[in-house]
Amino acid sequence: MLEPSHNNELPAIPGKRYFTIGEVSELCAVKPHVLRYWEQEFPQLKPVKRRGNRRYYQRDDVLTIRQIRSLLYDQGYTIGGARLRMTDEGGETLAPEIQAIIKETIQDLEELLEALQPAK
User: Fold this and answer.
1) In sequence order, what are the beta bridge partners of 56?
2) Angle between helix 79-88 and helix 59-69 axes, rounded to 10 deg
3) Which domain holds residue 26?
4) Would residue 106 count as lying in a domain?
5) Helices (H), the chain
6) pLDDT tens for residues 27-60?
7) CATH number at residue 57
């Protein structure tokens, strides 16, 4: 996952399970209306909605918002470009166990392909 360079300047994320939109706004230095807009533009951003359609963000959502903020504000991406970049990096956010299985499977397939090649 992309590590935004400005995260050093942003406040640390508390060890809570859920955050309100106001808390996330302060943690990510982004106004609430921008967060609501980004929810429409980035499919990765899906806060839990409860009581009266109130949004509750989890830690992963806060990290995703910081990543989007870095792409848009620090790296100069457009909304479309940032959306593409976020979907391109989807494979990098897999759990390490799954990444290891994928690498092992690719290696096994390459060995099998090599074994099936006619002798030269």
Assistant:
1) 48
2) 130
3) 5-93
4) no
5) 21-28, 32-41, 59-69, 79-88, 96-116
6) 999 999 999 999 999 988 999 988 888 999 999 9
7) 1.10.1660.10
